[in-house]
User: What shape does this take?
Amino acid sequence: MSKPVIYWFRQDLRLVDLPALIAAAKAGPVVPVFIWDEELGGEWCMGGASQWWLHHSLGQLHQGLEQNGSRLILRRGDTLKELAQLLEETEATQVFASRQYQPWAAGLEQQVRDMAAGRGADFKRYSGTLLFEPETVRTGSGTPFKVFTPFWRACQKLEAPALPQPVPLLKKPASWPNSASLDDWSLQPRKPNWALGWENLWSPGEMGASKALHTFLEGHVADYGDGRDFPARPNTSRLSPHLKFGEISPRQVWWAAQALKEEHGALGGAVDKFLSEIGWREFCNHLLTLFPAMPDRAFNPKFEYFPWQADPQLIRAWQQGQTGYPIVDAGMRELWQTGFMHNRVRMVVASFLTKHLLTHWRIGQQWFWDCLLDADLASNACSWQWVGGSGADAAPYFRIFNPVAQGEKFDKAGVYTRRWVPELAELPDKYLYKPWEAPELTLAAAGIELGGNYPTPIVDHREAREAALSAYATLKTLAV
Ligand SMILES: Cc1cc2nc3c(=O)[nH]c(=O)nc-3n(C[C@H](O)[C@H](O)[C@H](O)COP(=O)(O)OP(=O)(O)OC[C@H]3O[C@@H](n4cnc5c(N)ncnc54)[C@H](O)[C@@H]3O)c2cc1C
Assistant: This one.
């Protein structure tokens, strides 16, 4: 029997349309491996909510491999050491993996390549996480794009992504190396179990990803253009955690969307809008490759001198959904209770933190990192910098969301807000987003005691807006 090869799974936890796995299967019997390396990424090691997802996703991947006559070998510890150990145990001649884009990924891949070479083995890396590799999208003068619209236009002029590929036939090795037990890794929270009931909200794994895509395309994409901004509507795909863990490839999404467009031409506009959001995911990774310091440093260097404040009490109120601004509180509680937050509301709460509370976007980024199931280094950093005004192609800092107006515009009937802030359920629509303006009798009839069971606003919108604009003005004179 020919010598085995190792397939090193990372954020590509699927079997369908995985070019590196197809190549591995051609090269010999495959030993599929996932290494839980808690130190990898330093302060960007995986957050709590994502660990919950990882636990379930690995379970699904293991099942999928078993159905294909294979299995998933789990190891815990330093990636390099574990891979070296596995090469020795299995006598594998090659290690296959899909490319990752975190700032530490390329260095680690080089170390793996060197370590493998020292043992007479090869390391082979394939694409599979993005539609277009960052190096292939360039302006006319050969430089990377820093603005989304021309970036996405250029992507669409490139050769279309290849068609998705089926699961390859996986030959078994003569013997299997030992595997750790997933349950021993304690990826799920216990005391307290803050993820209670999440199994009813999410279906991690490849099947769940495929179902989410098809439910969305068949039922909800038609209203995506308008509906995607309204958090109470079911018009977004909720694919982000699946894409983040690589349970579905962007090519599968792309081609399923193209097929729908071909079948129902009238849906073209909505489908293109949806694909342009997938384009934002590409753009964020493109920027992270260009500027690996993006999670730590402002893309626009002027913002390194912004007079940020850090009031622990205000930050805690924001994290706990106790700001006194109902749409902000609804979003922050949705995040805590479900591991997710609607995009429109993410923008509102991020604007509130960076502009109303003058708090550094990195603090918000870190909280999202721990709480989001879809926490992704590129999209999170890019989005926080976008809202905070310091990013490439960012919203201008002086565009400060009014949390009252945002609530009234995007959740007029209060369906979303009342769900997550139930203490306001009985408050008439007229006062829902500004309970402090409601007459005493109205508040009493709704069972609300401001400063008691619901907070008074932690900052005054108008004053906070002025303070934010003054802080921003200090940057204008900087010669950076
Ligand atoms: C402050 C802030 C932080 C964010 N952090 C993350 C994060 O850590 N991980 C993450 O995946 N997204 C992040 N986003 C982007 C966006 O909010 C989510 O991708 C989206 O809400 C996921 O929901 P969906 O799958 O239903 O999206 P859909 O509207 O159905 O979009 C389809 C897919 O496109 C991608 N996408 C959509 N919008 C964006 C965007 N603005 N930037 C990058 N990709 C996008 C996602 O992969 C998403 O699954 C953040 C946005 C903000 C404002």
